[in-house]
Amino acid sequence: MKKKMRNPLWKRLPRELVGDIGKYLVIFLFMTATIGFVSGFLVADESMLEAYDESFEKYRIENGNFTLDSQATEEKLEELEQEGVTIYENFYLDEPVDVDLDGTSDGTMRIFKKREEVNLVCLMKGTFPETADEIAIDRMYADNNSLAVGDTITVGGKELKITGLVALSDYSALFSDPGDLMFDSVKFGVSVLTPEGFAAFSDTHMKYCYSWLYEKEPADDTEEKEMADDFLEVLTAKADISGYLPRYLNQAIRFTGDDMGGDKAMVEVLLYILIAIMAFVFAVTTNNTIQKEAAVIGTLRASGYTRRELLLHYISLPILVTILAAVIGNILGYTVFKGIVADMYYGSYSLPTYETRWNAEAFCLTTLVPFVIMAIINVVLIRGKLKISPLRFLRKDLGSTRRSKAVRLPNFKFFNRFRIRILIQNRASYLTLFIGIVFANILLLFGMMMSPLLSHYQEETINNMLAKYQYILSVPDELDVEENSLLGMVQKLLMPSLETENENAEKFCMESLKMIPEKEGKDGESITIYGIEPDSKYVEADFSGLSEKGVLLSDGFQQKYGIKTGDTISLKEPYGSKTYEFQVGGFYDYPGALAFFMPAENFRRLFGKKEAYFNGYFSDEELTDLDDDYVTTTITQDDLTKVSRQLDVSMGEMFQLFNVFSLILFALLIYLLTKLIIEKNASSISMVKILGYKNREIVSLYLVSTTWVVIFSVLASFFFATELIKDIYIFMMSEYSGWLTLYIEPSIYGKMFALGMLVYALVAVLQFRSIKKIPMDEALKNVE
Fold first, then answer.
1. For the chain, the helix, strand and coil percentages under 3-state DSSP, each to the nearest 5
2. Of 144, 325, 492, 517, which sees the most CB atoms within 10 A?
3. Could you report the per-residue pLDDT of 42-90, keeping only the tens digit for each?
4. Phi and psi for 699 in degrees, rounded to 5?
């Protein structure tokens, strides 16, 4: 039996690898790091997502909760439980917390009794409290405020010792209010006390919250919504509820899972775009190699080698590098990057402990998919070159069409005409460079714009605050009763608690409504309706010319929904079906919330309130003479700026990662493609040296043309990146409640240009050294 001869082309691969080790090494390192991070991200994301999904059963997370104005009787609860639910007490208190014991409040602590039946607590470190003066606080809140087990904090005026760090299963994201745009893990925390410790607090700030679990779990989201709507109808008929929050609308529970699921898709797309860019770089460099080895290929084809054999040879190294990068990247993903990603999630969310799990899907997505992308792009781009006949290879006639006349250029100076010729000859490489720079600058712009955007939002919010304090009252100014009746006399006793002697205070009316959702199963966004007194010194709005139902919209609402003056907007009650129509009469500069402003007189008429009705105060001074029992909420600067504060804490490291990553991609593409152009023109450079040109003159010939392309690409990328970022930002913000005005600080473009040119200058220095190393005899080797 004849032994098949080994293909001698395989012997060339190690020599080609060593001969171009710089190119293969930088691409290998970049792909390894990219695949490693994505693999680690997917593994950590999926492991934590599975732990999150399992927590619903493991920790008996509620199907929803409702809040009453007072504690329900046992008979009332038993009556409600006839609807196929089990109801549990889940009372809580919102108390001021002082973490550094300096006597001033550092935020709000929501305290619960330790749960035993529903919404169970995961102990992360330390122990649960055992005495009335001990407390276990949320782990992430502790990290953000530099607290540890053994420290002492003051909550509601009581000193408590921290015995443990915990994760409350129904507060994986620390939303103090479900209508907030963003959670707040810096100024808002949750904690558990012993029953004795909880009872030691006054019930002034008590929220009579009840959690429920269905006896039979809903089969899907649609059935869950139907069951929640049915239960709401029963509740409103049998009890006076002040709050109702089914699980599928509870941001504190759902936000974490939704966010982790959304991150996965984004990271996968990022990986595939980067692999595609690397594949194009490989294909362009391989085509250059084919052009350089045209005579050799022609000889091999004439000797009987098929196009398939040559194609396999030229795509072997790109595919081998991809496979090796995928294998090592996955190893790093499971060992190094997984922990980095998990720490990022633990820095944003109050998640329970998790176990790393083998993720077959992640392995396929980070190994098979990059392999397929690399193979397809290289085969498509290289195969066309290899279709040329052996004779044309031998003649080095590799043009796709018959040789055409050279492009006639204007009568420029010799050096400029030479540079233009270089641009024309290397247009494919420069096009790849342009696309890569645009993509890199999209990432860089996103990373660099977010911190100034958050600072600008915070500054604008503070500058446009309606007042330093907004007090929302739980009892109206006047009760609709006769003055001499028993309730009338009670009203007189209550009146002092609703009035203030502070002349700085100004009354206003407020109501919360919701947008009518466009899609079934979605919850409408909360909108605050303000009724403003005439000649207000806090809201300097021009209400003249407004119709009875006319309103001024906050500018954030207008930007998010694209509303115009004259449009009609319908809103509905939060826990009912009654709808209200408003006519847009103009806009008011208020970035703090999505809000409508209307005259107080029209407000009272629209909502059926008495003439003197009010339920809030604006004030630039703290009102100390209001009865705490009737102050539902106090809105201050900390409440309005929690979004920017939390995003900076949660995403600050991610923004820096975007910056570093995009600069590395920028440098990599410039290095590889300028290297390619110099290698492609090695014979010409050698000939120019023979003609007596100095290295500096040669650099001005070859690198200046690349400099033109880089400068043009960077400047043009600003336009493309900005337009794309606008679309991405609007889409991203449409998924959240509220609005952050898009702001791109003008100086960012200057910084991006300077960084790009600095990176290019470093690469140019390396390429200058490459030009110096090209020998004069290179031109003599290729004389035809």
1. 55, 15, 30
2. 325
3. 888 888 888 888 889 899 999 999 998 889 999 999 999 998 999 999 9
4. -60, -40
